[in-house]
Amino acid sequence: MDVMGDKATLFETGRFVQPSQPDEAGEAVEGVAEDAAEEVRRRIAAETGDVEAMSVLGAMLLRRGDLDGAEPHLRAATAAGDRAAANNLGVLLHQRGYADDAAGWWRIAAVAGSAAAAHALGRHHRERGDEPAAEYWLRQSAEQGHALGAYALADLLEHRGDARAELWMRSAAERGHREAAYRLARALDRKAVGEADTGADSAVAESSEAEAEAEQWYRQAAARGHRRAALHLGAILEKRGELKEAGRWYLTSAKDGEARAACALGFLLRDAGDSESAAVWWLRAAQDGDGNAANALGALHAERGEPQTAERWYRAAMDAGDDNGAYNLGLLCAEQGRKAQAEQWYRRAAYAGHREAANALAILLLQGGDARGAEPWFSKAAEAGSVDAAFNLGILFAGRGEDAVALRWYERAAGAGHTEAALQVGIARLRDGDEREAERYLRCAAGGGSAEAAYRLATVLDARRPPVPSHELGETVHEKSECEEWYERAASLGHRRAQVRVGMLAAARGDVVEAARWYREAAEAGSRNGAFNLGLLLAREGSEPEAAVWWTRAADAGHGRAALRLALVYARRGELAEGQRWADRAVALGPGEVAERAARLRDALRQELSA
Fold first, then answer.
1. Above 60 in pLDDT, residue 4?
2. pTM for this one?
């Protein structure tokens, strides 16, 4: 089953991301790390009126969550002019729900030079919609080198579409802010895509530089425990073919709870041949609501011949909002011959914009004889970018005799790399006499693996080939022309006429063994010309009985010359009645020259029989 689901498109994130670590989202508490002995020393010092000790002790208690214990120490230190205490008192009051009182203390601390307080005050104003005040205080914090302030300022500017956002996001990232590093990498990714789309050489170079820098920031954020950065880093490495390292980052991200990483890790393991381990990670991701993982599990169970379990996971994918689930259910029902249910699920996915489902629905309707109903779905799928749908529209219009419209759709599909569409355009151009344009399309189709295109291209080139120069007696020099190479390509792909032609070329240069091999392949595949030529070759080598076997096969398939050869064979053997029978057959099959000779032979045999 060809299950749709592209894991490479799973990595999109919203404009505003959730904080990855508490300190990156909340107010910064200024103080020192907690230690029992240190707390005792600070408490003793605070009781003697040491302002610094009161401030640090208050910060320690605040970090612990002991708000009642922290408040008197912070107020006492604040009254003595300690700016860190004023900031932390603001944090405490904010946690108690007194936001305006907290802002007052933050303002005091910020004016006194506290970068953490300026950051907290800026966030306070932004939450209340006062963006000018928020920008002022966040800038104060950022310009003092505060990572959280720089990040919050960048977030505010990015929300406005201000180009300076990248500058402050970079500043925060350089100071170790992992969410800033991640978002900077995402911005660089978008920039790289935009530059690449322009197509200019300088833009392509800039795009490559942006991609390289993005990878560095993803790596920095991932090393600091950012699970989405680890996911993106894994995707970059996988695309580059560094699968082992990609797997390590996927694993790191998946263990931190990133369902998309667990899904991607599952695909990596499946491609490595470990379906059992892949299923474990897909299950984990699917249980966390990842629709792509649910689809993958459905496909796995479908391959194992467990359609009921597969259907359950496809439904789980739909519940997770993945339209591929409905499409895959349609495929499953179609394979089981449940066409009504297949149509239902295809319609559901197609109405949601799933182009492959729209194409599949159109095919189902066309097979049911509803060409009128199929056409709009083919059109919808083709306009959405489905190359197969564009090709199918070509077939639909060609069947109606609307060749010009069909050709436009074939050209559209061919332009997107569809092999059979390129073949059809090539045939149409040959029919119109535009040999050069035909050759271009036939080359595309032949390069894509079309045996018919390779054969037709060879015939075009063969017609242009100059006569083979005569060589001195005994000279065996022979260089294969391009047309011979295409004949051989088509022959190796099973094209019967190409096999016969390759056999003829081999026979012409005296390679009887090679000629016999290709004639035999063609004959065994049902080619009457192959069987006839093989018979000729065997007869020349003295194996007339075996030759007669192949001529019989060719004549039974409607080959007049083979029937005439059989008539001659039986006449020479003295089996006149059998000779006459094959002569009659040759007269009926033709062509004209053969029919004329066969008629003379038949009449002679008839006279012999009546004598």
1. no
2. 0.73
